[in-house]
Amino acid sequence: HRGGTETNSILHYHIQRHDQDMSNNEPKQSAKYNLEKKLFHALHDNHIHNPSIKEFKESWSFANSVRSFMKEGNRMTHVLDVAGGHGALAALFLLLVPECESATVIDPAVVKGEVGVKDAWSEYWGEKRLTYRHECLRTGLREELDRILHYNNQDISPTNVLVVACHACQHLTDETLEIASEYGVNIAVMPCCQKDHKGSWKGLSKRLGKSNGNKSNNSQEIASLSFGTIMDLLTAGKMMAWNTGLQANVEYVVKMKLMDSAITLQNRIIMCKSMQRRDDNSNDEEREAAHQRLALAYRRAHKVDKVEKNRIQRWRNAFNESF
Q: Can you tell which superkingdom this protein's organism belongs to (predicted)?
């Protein structure tokens, strides 16, 4: 359903479905619902408008994509949801990941759906904990990470923690990644409203579009990338940089996955799995082996050995002729 808040509300959707069934004189069937449908209907039964249909679908797709990438459930034992609003995304990790014990929403805004998600879904997660911290991520995220990793008596590794941010606007995604990577935890974000504060990449996006639109018969087609796509690729690249996670002695395996564009057009999920940083010696050995292979290929491609042999022969001939 596309449209405003009313037409995208879960309650509106069910009213439409009910009217449609009645008009067709179809008897109500007691079908067996999967978990997704059970949660969806639970929101309706409790008269909850937040999350909307779009937000519910986003959260469901986001959580499942991240769960599939992380694979091991113990990578999501504790979840921190930045700019999570109503808390549906955080709650879904409690429901979908058996190992997930707690989830905290960090958002300065008090959203009406906060109590609603708890009321509708808490019966499905039992003794697990969903909490809200109404605070800016700049302080709230750091303090929550300190609480989980340093102040608890439990032995919790950074690899047991997942920080998520679904549609954290503009620089909030960057700050989420920056703070979380300092602690070496797992991270997954879906950026939106991207900004180029230095102005160097927005122009490239426009030029790529012009080049693609004015092709000549002799020129190759140039792929046109949207500004948002370029900025998200740069963000993923920063997470793969040599010094990212250095403070926590980790490095990141990064993958980007596209959510169904029918759900949202801002659909690029950047997922970062925290891994123990490899020993520098092993990196040097791998690079040296690669260098040797490249050197051999270069010599073959440019016939370096033959040129060198001829050069030495000419030098010998010149040396002999001088006597």
A: Eukaryota
